[in-house]
User: Fold UspA domain-containing protein from Dictyostelium purpureum.
Amino acid sequence: MKYLISLDGSQQSHKAFELAESLYKPGDHIHIVTISKPKESIEKGEELLEKYEELCQERGMKNERIVLKSQDVGVGLEQAIRDYNIDILILGTRGMNTLKKVFINSVSDYAMNNIAACDVIVAK
Assistant:
């Protein structure tokens, strides 16, 4: 099984990592990804993924880290899913209330409604 875990440094994305860890079985492969906007430095993303790569190694989980540049996180995730033949996307949710969701499209909503190439699990 190939998992793609979207990480942004938030507690919710860490919960996504923990969920992936609980699902992981020998032979599975974890792809840890962070997405930067085109004009942002990728250094913060690299540092974040180094931390999670170390966690994967400590826990014996095969992994690969991916830093992508994309103006739209949802579109970037879709591209990674296609490029790496991902079976399951796991991501966290911001925990936005209904009013905020009306004004701000969340990545988890986008993934649940628009990504058809794999299963999507949202960790709360």
Notes: The helical segments are 11-23, 43-58, 73-83, 98-103, 107-114. The chain has one domain: 2-123.
